[in-house]
């Protein structure tokens, strides 16, 4: 009997040891070690908890429990010794004054981390209302930097899920130099009048997946910049905002190609644009490429410009449209796009006179217009799309090569 009890005790010990080894170490900012309390400034406690967790040789978890906490600013830097999770269950609040930040373009940043998980159902509240009135980046190319809510730089094999970004002063999430990372089950919210509050902006990144997100902002719900490849956007609801955009491209020298973009199963409601590719006129040399871009199964609800290629994009007062955009757009498809347009011009493909768009396809497009500004129509310039299953009004009559007016949106 004693031998049997000893055997069972040993078995229980091994089971407990195995379980302990499998569970990540937990670094709770409200524990006695770190001393944070709801209603207080959590900046130092969170920095110390991250430092300890990042140094852990086994998988670790930093926890911010329920409650509201002040966070001045933070940069969580790797590399870490093992996979690491930050679980924010409460609300983190940024300072209201953008001038209080030592890194003026970032509130919360994650850098050089492999196997990061950011989760927890919590809220990153940028408290951006004061900054929106001071933000003139929509018309001033030399505007002062304003903090982004969440910046991800050189993150790999990671997940950002089940969090809310609220009222960011600038972009909500900026993704740069990242690979093999998924953003899922996100809520991103700012009022329609908030300026430059893109939901998720991606640049110089590869294999990024955005899925099951609800995004409503004062700018693009998702925007994809140069040197981005294999980006997938699925099951995203967008509105208000400026739509789901590639670009703007062609503003700076030595921009790199954008390739392999899929936008699928998304719904856009009351947005300024639907699915859009935008490039600047008078692009500096050498030219770049936007290629292999595919939109499929998109629902438009009262969208102003449902399908748009705009190679005359210029939000500022001064742009020279005479030298055409040098960004080459090819292999683009719009398939099974349905719903309602807020304006009679439901399809607008304005390509570059210098490098016309090639291999553009419109398939199964069913858009309606119920207003009184004229009949439903479409426009193509410097492109001859392949058209299948599209009503005559949307069959994209081709215009001449004469310059069209610059667009400001």
From TrEMBL:
PROSITE patterns: POLYGALACTURONASE (PS00502). It is found in: Secreted, Cell wall. It comes from the Eukaryota. GO terms for biological process: carbohydrate metabolic process; cell wall organization. The keyword Hydrolase applies. InterPro entries: Glyco_hydro_28, PbH1, Pectin_lyas_fold, Pectin_lyase_fold/virulence. Pfam families: Glyco_hydro_28. Residues 1-22 form the signal peptide. Keywords: Cell wall, Cell wall biogenesis/degradation, Glycosidase, Hydrolase, Secreted, Signal. The active site is at 242. One of its GO terms (molecular function) is polygalacturonase activity. Belongs to the glycosyl hydrolase 28 family. This is Exopolygalacturonase-like. The gene is LOC110754769.
């Amino acid at each position: 009997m004693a031998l049997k009890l000893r055997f069972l005790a040993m078995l229980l010990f091994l089971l407990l040891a195995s379980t302990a080894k499998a569970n990540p170490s937990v670094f709770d900012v409200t524990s006695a070690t770190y001393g944070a309390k709801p209603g207080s400034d959590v900046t130092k406690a969170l920095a110390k908890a991250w430092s300890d967790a990042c140094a852990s040789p086994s998988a670790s978890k930093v926890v911010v429990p329920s409650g509201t906490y002040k966070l001045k600013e933070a940069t969580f830097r790797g590399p870490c010794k093992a996979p690491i999770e930050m679980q924010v269950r409460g609300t983190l609040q940024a300072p209201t004054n953008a001038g209080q930040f030592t890194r003026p373009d970032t509130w919360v940043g994650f850098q050089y981390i492999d196997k990061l998980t950011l989760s927890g159902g919590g809220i990153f509240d940028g408290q951006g209302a004061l900054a929106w009135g001071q933000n003139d980046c929509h018309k001033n190319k030399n505007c002062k930097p304003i903090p982004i809510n969440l910046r991800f730089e050189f993150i790999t094999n990671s997940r950002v899920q089940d969090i809310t970004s609220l009222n960011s002063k600038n972009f909500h999430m900026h993704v740069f130099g990242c690979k093999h990372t998924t953003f899922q089950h996100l809520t991103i919210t700012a009022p329609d009048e908030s300026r430059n509050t893109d939901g998720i902006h991606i640049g110089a990144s590869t294999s990024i997946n955005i899925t099951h997100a609800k995004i409503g902002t004062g700018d693009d719900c998702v925007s994809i910049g140069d040197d981005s490849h294999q980006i997938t956007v699925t099951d995203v609801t967008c509105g208000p905002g400026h739509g789901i955009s590639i670009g703007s491209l062609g503003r700076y020298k030595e921009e790199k190609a954008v390739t392999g973009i899929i936008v699928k199963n998304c719904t856009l409601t009351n947005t300024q644009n639907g699915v859009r590719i935008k490039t600047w006129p008078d692009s500096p040399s050498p030219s770049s490429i936007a290629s292999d871009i595919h939109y499929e199964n998109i629902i438009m609800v009262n969208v102003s410009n449902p399908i748009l290629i705009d190679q005359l994009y210029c939000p500022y007062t001064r742009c020279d449209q005479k030298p055409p955009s040098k960004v080459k757009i090819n292999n683009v498809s719009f398939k099974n796009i349905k719903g309602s347009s807020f304006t009679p011009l439901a399809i607008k493909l304005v390509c570059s006179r210098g490098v016309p768009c090639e291999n553009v396809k419109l398939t199964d497009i069913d858009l309606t217009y119920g207003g009184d500004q004229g009949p439903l129509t479409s426009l193509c310039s410097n492109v001859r799309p392949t058209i299948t299953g599209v009503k005559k009004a949307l069959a994209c009559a081709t215009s001449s090569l004469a310059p069209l007016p610059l667009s400001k949106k």
